[in-house]
Design goal:
single chain, mainly alpha, 10 strands, 58% helix
């Protein structure tokens, strides 16, 4: 009698976990997954969204945080003379004013910004950790949360403004997010959010997954968070990029005063190095990113598990070597600073300024409420749309669009917004990079808890995780876009009332850089196309159409009678 083959360590571990209280609590067997699969899925999700640790902190730091003119140091009228020696003839001490916050930035203000950036890295990590913990524990879904891209830029550059040049101070903006989060939590708790989501038309609901996939791919193709294949063009908006660092330029909206002084436009911001001055398609980091792209693509073709992780890790490790053409630490001021931070490996930083920085003193101003309601409608559309798209991508939704655990999923991201505001960050939301973990087989809350575990470790190993370069994250984002396009086959392309709103949803998400705007465009198009039919139905229900039809029939009968009389007259005449 042949003996059964011995199970490997992972198989035995999976079999054991599946029968424990943990396995039954997270329904591993019911959802046809294993413990190690969930760990791998969580790892893939975290690696694709780890960029948020550095990116979110950098964006929010541009708002100035809690830094103000009081952090600026007095300077001598001659910048080459130290303040202690500023006593000679013709020299005077210039007290700081609002200009100290703008280039050339005052040294004292710069030091405050650096402290704020470190605070915001920890705040981003902690809010993401808490959000993933709540989502995984209560909703049992493989969805990760972190401060959202898009809303963080709106917070930093429109609401607060570059270095506090906007209409709402940083502390008041956090208060607006806190109140908005409480309203959002109430809407979720009473079930209104699910009902609002059900109002989204079917073609928009289906196409939103593909739109998010295109959005992800578009992000992955840019230089700020991707491989850099797409660059800025002043004539066509976008064009072919992939030029080396030395050939890139940053852009900024400026205005020139009558005296020749050049200043940044209110609400404007200096971009990243998005414009190629030449040398297109010869960027070494682009080609390294393409190697990572084909590593992941080949693994997907051969159905090798862990595809996303292999590509990200390979590109990241190669990029960590200094004095190479693909280094993540170039020999610049920022590169040297990043390398010094990277060498720490372990760094525990306590939040000093952003936690609990809320101020409700600006509630009487219209700008405060404008920001609050903008955050609210973006969260209702954006995060709800992302949740449904991820649930659909994972195959959790039923015929009605509902999915198991949706109530607690709604409660999880709403409560995370409140937590994030208390820590000093922009609204926290479900991340579309969760699709990476779903692709790796994640089906339960253990995936989210694994991501939470990584965020916990990130509190100590932030220097390593904040050093994952953009060209390592870009390839998986592009390929996730490929995977999320599969839903387009469910759209009824022969029915223009379905096809046009679906197409507008998919088109606007990447081109407006907003999931919310894509949903608004798709829903708006659907409403306009359906208005004629809805109007006819409404008239029918009110009985107006019946009256019109009756009048029409009476008129036709009368005409028929008159015609008959004329014919009889003609017959008599003939006779």
């Amino acid at each position: 009698m042949a003996t059964p083959p011995k199970l490997g360590i992972s198989a035995r571990l999976n079999a054991y976990i599946a029968n424990t209280r943990v396995g039954k609590r997270f329904k591993l067997a019911e959802r046809n997954t294993t413990f190690t699969t969930e760990l791998r899925a969580g790892t893939a999700t975290f690696l694709t969204m780890a960029y948020i640790l550095a990116v979110n902190a950098s964006i929010l730091t541009d708002s100035g945080g809690t830094c103000s003119v009081s952090d600026c140091t007095p300077l001598c009228s001659d910048p080459t003379v130290a303040l202690t020696n500023c006593t000679g003839a013709g020299l005077r001490v210039n007290p700081p004013n609002d200009s100290c916050k703008f280039p050339p930035v005052n040294p004292g203000y710069s030091a405050c910004l650096e402290r704020t950036r470190k605070d915001l890295i920890v705040a981003t990590t902690a809010s993401s950790l808490i959000g993933c913990l709540i989502m995984g524990t209560f909703s049992n879904l493989p969805l990760a949360l972190a401060p959202g891209m898009g809303t963080n830029a709106y917070f930093a550059y429109t609401v607060v403004g570059y270095h506090g040049s906007g209409n709402v101070p940083y502390r008041s903006a956090l208060a607006a997010i806190f109140i908005e989060g409480l309203i959002f939590l109430f809407i979720s708790a009473v079930g209104l959010r699910a009902r609002l989501a059900k109002l989204v038309p079917k073609p928009v609901r289906i196409s939103s997954s593909a739109g998010i996939g295109l959005f992800l791919a578009f992000i992955g193709l840019q230089s700020n968070q991707g491989i850099g294949l797409i660059g800025y063009s002043p004539s066509t908006l976008v064009t072919l990029g992939a030029c080396p660092r030395s050939s890139r330029a940053a852009l900024a909206p400026v205005m020139t005063a009558p005296d020749g002084t050049v200043t940044l436009l209110p609400g404007g911001a200096v971009s990243g190095e998005i414009m190629c001055l030449g040398d297109r398609m010869i960027s070494p980091t682009f080609w390294l990113g393409m190697v990572g792209f084909f590593i992941i693509a080949y693994c997907l073709v051969k159905n090798i598990k862990g595809a996303m992780i292999y590509g990200i890790v390979f590109v990241t490790v190669v990029s960590w070597f200094r004095n190479t053409l693909v280094t993540a630490f170039p020999d610049t001021v920022s590169g040297n600073s990043a390398y010094r931070y990277f060498k720490n490996i372990v760094d525990v930083h306590a939040i000093e300024t952003t936690a609990g920085a809320l101020s409700f003193s600006g509630m009487g101003k219209a700008n405060f409420w404008e920001a609050l309601f903008t955050f609210l409608y973006v969260d209702i559309l954006d995060t709800t749309g992302t949740l449904y798209s991820m649930a659909r991508f994972a195959g959790f939704t039923d015929d009605n669009g509902d999915f198991e655990g949706q109530y607690f999923a709604f409660m999880s991201d709403a409560s995370s917004i409140v937590v994030g505001s208390l820590l000093g960050t922009s609204p926290v939301c479900t991340y579309i990079e969760s699709s990476t973990g779903i692709r790796e087989g994640g089906r339960t809350g253990l995936t989210a808890l694994t991501v939470a575990g990584y965020f916990f470790m990130a509190l100590f190993f932030t220097p390593l995780l904040a050093s994952i370069p953009a060209w390592a994250v870009g390839p998986p984002l592009i390929l996730i876009g490929v995977l999320m396009m599969r839903c387009v086959v469910e759209i009824e392309w022969d029915d223009m009332k379905q096809a046009i709103p679906a197409f507008m949803t998919m088109l606007l998400m990447p081109l407006t850089y907003s999931i919310a705007y894509g949903l608004i465009g798709g829903i708006g198009t659907y409403i306009v196309l359906e208005m004629w039919d809805w109007g006819k139905d409404l008239l029918g229900r009110l009985g107006i159409r019946r009256c019109l039809k009756s009048d029409s029939l009476i008129g036709e009968t009368a005409n028929g009678t008159n015609n008959g009389a004329h014919e009889d007259v003609k017959k008599h005449e003939v006779v």
